[in-house]
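4.2 Preliminary Data

To establish feasibility before requesting continued support, the project team ran the inverse folding procedure on a target of 145 residues. The structure was first converted into the token representation described in Section 3, and no sequence information of any kind was made available to the design step. The complete token record follows.
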């Protein structure tokens, strides 16, 4: 049985060991779940970069959904205020999408970028406010101008 499972894991393209996301991203501050909650309470914008299916299963309540492969590029537009504090997350420490999104936000000139490396799973385990279903809108960012 184990040989079959090992064969399947090694033979299927894309099935490799999960990659751990980097601990730090230059130009951003890495925050743990309790620091993320403090930022949440202070009104920071949470940006969920996971695919829409995962977003629908649950997310930080009030977060904006910008799938890294689809909508995240919208933050590159120069009309968005660069002083808005952004807390960017995906699932967990083994989800490199948030690290990539943080790198992009820093490159685009955002001044207060927080890398919530523990992501939604840490938020969920801490039993902090969660939502399900519909995606947030970019309009949330304009309210901070």
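Position-by-position output of the design step:
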């Amino acid at each position: 049985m184990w040989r079959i499972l090992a064969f399947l894991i090694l033979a299927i393209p894309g099935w490799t060991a999960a990659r751990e996301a980097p601990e730090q991203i230059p130009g951003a501050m890495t925050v743990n779940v309790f620091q993320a909650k403090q930022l949440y309470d202070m009104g920071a914008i949470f940006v969920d970069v996971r695919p829409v299916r995962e977003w629908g299963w649950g997310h930080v309540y009030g977060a904006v959904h910008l799938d890294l492969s689809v909508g995240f590029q919208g933050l590159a537009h120069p009309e968005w205020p660069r002083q808005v504090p952004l807390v960017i997350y995906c699932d967990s420490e083994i989800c490199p999408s948030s690290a990539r999104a943080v790198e992009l936000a820093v490159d685009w000139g955002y001044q207060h970028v927080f890398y919530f490396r523990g992501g939604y799973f840490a938020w969920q385990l801490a039993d902090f406010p969660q939502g399900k279903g519909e995606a947030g809108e970019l309009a949330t960012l304009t309210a901070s101008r």
